[in-house]
Each structure stands twice: as structure tokens, then as C-alpha cells.
Design a protein that fits this description.
477 residues, alpha/beta, FAD/NAD(P)-binding domain, Enolase-like, domain 1, 5-stranded antiparallel β-sheet, globular
Length: 477
């Protein structure tokens, strides 16, 4: 047991709420329930703090920023009269600095706040349900009126023949590597695979990014296509349109055999990273036997109030298998806790959820894609503006990217925004607010935006629905 656990206390007496999982969703649920007047038991298993702070958001973004400095130096030649270089001199030192940040944030944002909540008892152990729905921790029964499952996810391993005999990396191990390999094969080109592939490529590793459906297959096709080209420009070898045959360890290397239109292709690398998504942590909880229904991806099935199929059992966060973002985990957990303590009156609303992939350029999106809108039989209008039409990008000598807006053709209301730009993450919230408030593209295009900003591109993209912005003067509104 850790030194911040209350496990030395007897787990006796009744609790109003038991929260299983001590990550962002678990802490959000426990704190919210405590603020609502509940006596709470918070059950952790593994490292406190969950995925985001330990092995996800924080470590990956720290290394992304570090690798970005290498790219910025190499791109300095965009400006006449400037020459700059940068190189990795001690990758181990960088990884250890990253880990210090992780440790500090885990301590400050999780461990240190526990004493501030006297109503929350923290214990560690494996939780599970009995057939009659009783909750236990390490086989010791817990008397709790309401239960919130927030056990998160772990990397999903694809069913490639031979994978069980290969020393593969997951994102967790990849972000902890203290020695850079000469070559890295990344299997999976979703957001995790793309982010980590670019980190290692910029650090000088020979990276191959392989997937069946291409880079960010759920993104707008214009964005996937453009980002693919930028990856190639940085030396990342892209392989897609394949099916997996088998994988094996051979002569201190990893060899992946795939089928493509030309037959069998073999790809060899020093290390292989599996980045094919994540799977909910539910198998140890005995949920189905306790009458708690699971989704097709083994997440806990919940309704809009975050209730499971068993009375008084709720679930929130990544374990539900949907909206796997740390901010949505915390949001859903608050709803679950408040509903558990009150009258189930709050509903989970994921209609407007901004999302960011921290590649460079960044991919930021909110609302519907064009395909999703057409599938809903909406009369769709779209506007696509390349970043070479945005003064900020021209001044920065970096015109990579584009902005795509989706509008309802009947009402003119914005229903989707998708950005590929170096500062896309700082721009998407403006689009989210526009969609949330029901703005039309004409209203967005008529707003005043600060000049020489990336967010001004939203205004220009909105105006592009009805005019050629190339015919505007630099500051014309």
C-alpha cells in the first residue's frame, strides 16, 4: 500500500458512495459526491492519478513540445538570414525531466488534495462485484448505497498472428524509453500513433507508421490527406491499405508481414509500438455476473444520467467506452456523482465536444464531420480554406493546414468545424462557442477578429462560403 492510502483504517461502516478508480473520473466523482455531503470511499488500483497524468496527456505533450524545438530549428531556413540547428544530446535526461513533471503533477493534483476532503477515504485494492451486486475490495465487502465505476482503459492489443511472442511497446513504454531506437514501427495511425510517431521521427528515429485505413481515418479526408503529406515531408514512412498477416521477432528486430495490393510486404524495425486504441478496464470487476450490461467494446453501458443497467450503479469516464478525453471523463463523473446523490435529473451532453490531436500541425475539431452530417440527411454546405489565405500563417512562413466548416444548408447554422494548423488547439473553442450558440456562418463571418491570429482564419473560412477571400484586402471585414 502507498503512504497516501487510508487502508490502515478499517473499511467498516456505511458509505453513501463508493467510487472505483482513482484517475481523473474517479477523483472528480469522489470530490463532487463529497461536496454534495456524501461519505465516500475512493478505491484505487495501480498508480494513483490514472491515464492522463501518468502515461497519457501529460508525458506525451511534454515530449511533443520537446521534439517540436528540434523541428523549429530545422525549419528556421524559412526566414532569410537565419540559420539554426538543434539535436538530441541526452534523450535519457529529457525523459527523466518529463517523468519529474509527471510525478510532481500526480502529487499536486491527486495525492496532496486527498487530505482536504475528510469525507473521502482512499483505499487501494482490486474491486469486484459479487453475483448479488455486493462490492468488495480485496474480498472485503464494502457497504455503499451508490457505486460509481471509473476504472479507465488500457492499450488495446490487435489480433495479429504472433503478437503474443513479440516484445512490443505500448504508448506507456514508448514514452518511458530512455534510449532512442534506430527504427520504430508504429502500428495504428489514430491520435496516439500519430503523436508518438512524430515525436520519435523528430528525435531522429527512422519511423514507419502503418495502418489499414490511413492517417486519422475518422478525420475529414482533406485533413487526413494533408497531414499525411506533412508526415512524409518529415521523413515518416506511411504504409496503409493493408491487412496484417503476422509479426515475429527475428535477429534482434521485429518483422511485420502485411498484405497489400502487390502481395506480401515485410517491414523491419528495432522496436514496434502498438497504438491501435484502448480497451476498458472491466474484466476483473465481474460486472456481467452482477447484472451490469457491457457495450460491444466491453465498456459499461450507461444512459444519459450515467446509470448502468443495475440500480444504484453508475459509470463514468473512459470505462464507458465513449468520449475518451480527460475533460469528458471529469464532466461525466460529476454528473454521475450528482445524480447518485440527488434525483437523476442531470443528463450527459456530448453534442458539442472539442477535440485536439497534438500533431504538428495540430488537428482540432468540434461538431459533425461532413460525412456524419450527410448520414443524418442534413442539407450540407461546406467551406474549405487553406492556411495560405490566413495572414498569420503567411507572416509565420508556415502555411501548412486548412480550415473546414460544415453548415446546415437550410438554416446556415454552423454544425461542424475542423482545423489543421500549428495553433489549431487554441482556435477550436471559438468554433465550439459559435456552434453551441447556434451562430450562422454569416454571423461568424461578420464578427470582429484580431488581425494576424490563427483564429481569424475562422472568420475567413466563414466568409468563404459566399465569396472568394483572395479578393479581399488584408484587413477587409
Amino acid at each position: 500500500m502507498s503512504d497516501y492510502s487510508d487502508s490502515d483504517k478499517l473499511i467498516e461502516g456505511a458509505y453513501d458512495v463508493a467510487v472505483i478508480g482513482a484517475g481523473s473520473a474517479g477523483f472528480s466523482a469522489a470530490i463532487t459526491a463529497a461536496d454534495e455531503g456524501a461519505k465516500v470511499i475512493l478505491i484505487g488500483h495501480g498508480t494513483i492519478g490514472g491515464t492522463c497524468v501518468n502515461v497519457g496527456c501529460v508525458p506525451s505533450k511534454a515530449l511533443i513540445r520537446a521534439a517540436e524545438t528540434l523541428h523549429v530549428a530545422s525549419a528556421a531556413e524559412r526566414f532569410n538570414g537565419i540559420e539554426a540547428t538543434a539535436r538530441v544530446t541526452d534523450w535519457q535526461a529529457l525523459v527523466r525531466q518529463k517523468q519529474e513533471l509527471v510525478d510532481d503533477l500526480r502529487q499536486a493534483k491527486y495525492v496532496d488534495i486527498l487530505p482536504a476532503y475528510a469525507a473521502v477515504t482512499y483505499v487501494e485494492g482490486q474491486a469486484s462485484f459479487s453475483d448479488d451486486g455486493t462490492l468488495s475490495v480485496n474480498d472485503e465487502p464494502i457497504d455503499a448505497g451508490k457505486i460509481i465505476v471509473a476504472t479507465g482503459t488500457r492499450p488495446a492489443i490487435p489480433s495479429i498472428r504472433g503478437i503474443e511472442n513479440v516484445p512490443y511497446l505500448t504508448s506507456t513504454e514508448a514514452l518511458e524509453l530512455e534510449i532512442l531506437p534506430q527504427s520504430l514501427l508504429v502500428i495504428g495511425a489514430g491520435y496516439i500513433g500519430c503523436e508518438i510517431a512524430q515525436i520519435f521521427a523528430r528525435a531522429g528515429v527512422n519511423v514507419t507508421l502503418i495502418s489499414r485505413r490511413g492517417v486519422l481515418p475518422e478525420a475529414e479526408p482533406e485533413i487526413s490527406e494533408a497531414l499525411s503529406q506533412y508526415f512524409r515531408d518529415e521523413g515518416i514512412n506511411l504504409v496503409d491499405g493493408i491487412t496484417y498477416d503476422h509479426i515475429e521477432a527475428k535477429n534482434s528486430s521485429i518483422v511485420l508481414s502485411v498484405h497489400n495490393k502487390d502481395g506480401i510486404k515485410k517491414i523491419t524495425a528495432d522496436k514496434v509500438l502498438i497504438a491501435t486504441g484502448r480497451t476498458p478496464n472491466t474484466e476483473q470487476l465481474n460486472l456481467t455476473t452482477a447484472g451490469i450490461e457491457l457495450t460491444g467494446n466491453n465498456g459499461v453501458k450507461v444512459d444519459a444520467q450515467m446509470r448502468s443497467s443495475r440500480a444504484n450503479v453508475y459509470a463514468a469516464g473512459d470505462v464507458t467506452g465513449r468520449d475518451q478525453f480527460v475533460y469528458m471523463a471529469a464532466y461525466g463523473a460529476k454528473i454521475a456523482a450528482k445524480n447518485a446523490m440527488n434525483s437523476n435529473s442531470l443528463a450527459y451532453d456530448n453534442s458539442i465536444v472539442p477535440a485536439v490531436v497534438f500533431t504538428d500541425p495540430q488537428v482540432a475539431s468540434v461538431g459533425l464531420t461532413e460525412a456524419e452530417a450527410r448520414n443524418q440527411e442534413i442539407e450540407v454546405r461546406t467551406s474549405v480554406l487553406t492556411m495560405d489565405n490566413v495572414p498569420r500563417a503567411l507572416a509565420a512562413r508556415d502555411t501548412r493546414g486548412l480550415i473546414k466548416l460544415i453548415a446546415d444548408g437550410e438554416t446556415g447554422k454552423l454544425i461542424g468545424a475542423h482545423i489543421l494548423a500549428p495553433e489549431g488547439s487554441d482556435t477550436i473553442q471559438t468554433a465550439a462557442l459559435a456552434i453551441k450558440t447556434g451562430m450562422t456562418y454569416e454571423e461568424l463571418g461578420a464578427m470582429i477578429f484580431p488581425y494576424l491570429t490563427t483564429v481569424e482564419g475562422l472568420k475567413l473560412a466563414a466568409q468563404t462560403f459566399d465569396m472568394d477571400v483572395k479578393k479581399l484586402s488584408c484587413c477587409a471585414g
